[in-house]
């Protein structure tokens, strides 16, 4: 069993980007600039955005954090989005989700300029990804593909079962895994909460990608020997015996499933760090796109 170490690979990617940024500075060129819009004080969002800002600083990117109060109106948020669309200094930006309930997420995401949508959520970018055109790929699926590539996990002709059909992870990774390329060329089954024979499907799978958000959902008796496991789930589970009052776990019952797996991602330290690394990669691509 080999651990697919997202922390290690994400650090490699950041080092590669750091070298590119240093060369830009030497040539007197503009370095990539990533902005993040955060509305309210959701704990997980604050942690995530803070991590992105620190990563930017570490690799030499410019970064801007726009932190708006919880009661910000949809109209004011849309004005902020339009300002970022029209600001030539900003190469790419993200609007951190979830947004407060009084704001229409779809309306806000639709207002983002697809050329600055480094999250890859805009329908224009999703459509281009589905058609195998050059575009921004949503950071988590992009990170999964990069992890498989760098560990030389064989996906060609394999049966991949994706559990979860979100627009952010499940659907895009099911498309990417079926496309021509390496990784890719896989036969994909997209399963979800209404799938009736899920265990039957996962037992057939050579690769299982779980993005369900249910702690330890995937048990050892649901997978075959030699399976590759990509665990996208990350859930805080309350536990009074822990110093923080909780522990973090994924969708996979790691201790037991890992005994049968040939490759497996840990939680934390697997897909999570890759998501931030690929967001930075998308920002670098956005800067190149704008400079051309």
From TrEMBL:
CDD domains, alphabetized: NAD_bind_m-THF_DH_Cyclohyd
Organism: Flagellimonas aurea
Ranges where the Tetrahydrofolate dehydrogenase/cyclohydrolase catalytic domain occurs: 4-119
Family the UniProt entry places it in: Belongs to the tetrahydrofolate dehydrogenase/cyclohydrolase family.
Involved pathway(s): One-carbon metabolism; tetrahydrofolate interconversion
Reactions catalysed: (6R)-5,10-methenyltetrahydrofolate + H2O = (6R)-10-formyltetrahydrofolate + H(+); (6R)-5,10-methylene-5,6,7,8-tetrahydrofolate + NADP(+) = (6R)-5,10-methenyltetrahydrofolate + NADPH
The protein's role, per its UniProt record: Catalyzes the oxidation of 5,10-methylenetetrahydrofolate to 5,10-methenyltetrahydrofolate and then the hydrolysis of 5,10-methenyltetrahydrofolate to 10-formyltetrahydrofolate.
Assembly and binders: Homodimer.
Residues reported to bind NADP(+): 164-166, 234
Domain Tetrahydrofolate dehydrogenase/cyclohydrolase NAD(P)-binding: 138-290
Organism domain of life: Bacteria
KW Nuclease (keyword) present: no
E.C. no: 1.5.1.5, 3.5.4.9
Protein name, entry field: Bifunctional protein FolD
InterPro entries hit by this protein: Aminoacid_DH-like_N_sf (IPR046346), NAD(P)-bd_dom_sf (IPR036291), THF_DH/CycHdrlase (IPR000672), THF_DH/CycHdrlase_cat_dom (IPR020630), THF_DH/CycHdrlase_CS (IPR020867), THF_DH/CycHdrlase_NAD-bd_dom (IPR020631)
Entry keywords, A to Z: Amino-acid biosynthesis, Histidine biosynthesis, Hydrolase, Methionine biosynthesis, Multifunctional enzyme, NADP, One-carbon metabolism, Oxidoreductase, Purine biosynthesis
């Amino acid at each position: 069993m080999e651990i697919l170490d997202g922390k290690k690979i994400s650090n490699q990617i950041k080092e590669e980007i750091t070298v590119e940024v240093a060369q830009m500075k030497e040539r007197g060129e503009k370095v990539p600039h990533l902005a993040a819009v955060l509305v309210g004080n959701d704990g997980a969002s604050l942690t995530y955005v803070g991590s992105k800002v620190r990563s930017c600083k570490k690799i030499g990117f410019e970064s801007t954090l726009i932190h708006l109060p919880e009661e910000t109106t949809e109209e004011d948020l849309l004005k902020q989005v339009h300002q970022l669309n029209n600001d030539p200094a900003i190469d790419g930006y993200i609007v951190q989700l979830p947004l407060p309930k009084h704001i229409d997420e779809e309306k806000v995401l639709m207002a983002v300029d697809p050329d600055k949508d480094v999250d890859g959520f805009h329908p224009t970018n999703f459509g281009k990804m589905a058609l195998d055109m050059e575009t921004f790929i949503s950071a988590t699926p992009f990170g999964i593909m990069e992890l498989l590539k760098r560990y030389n996990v064989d996906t060609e002709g394999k049966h991949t079962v994706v559990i979860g059909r979100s627009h952010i992870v499940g659907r895009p990774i099911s498309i990417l895994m079926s496309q021509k390329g390496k990784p890719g060329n896989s036969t994909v089954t997209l399963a979800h909460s209404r799938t009736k024979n899920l265990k039957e499907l996962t037992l057939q799978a050579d690769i299982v990608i779980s993005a369900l958000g249910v702690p330890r959902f995937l048990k050892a008796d649901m997978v075959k020997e030699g399976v590759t496991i990509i665990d996208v789930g990350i859930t805080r589970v309350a536990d009074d015996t822990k110093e923080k009052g909780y522990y973090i776990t994924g969708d996979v019952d790691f201790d037991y499933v890992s005994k049968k797996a040939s490759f497996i991602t840990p939680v934390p330290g697997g897909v999570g760090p890759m998501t931030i690394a690929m967001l930075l990669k998308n920002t670098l691509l956005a800067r190149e796109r704008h400079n051309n």
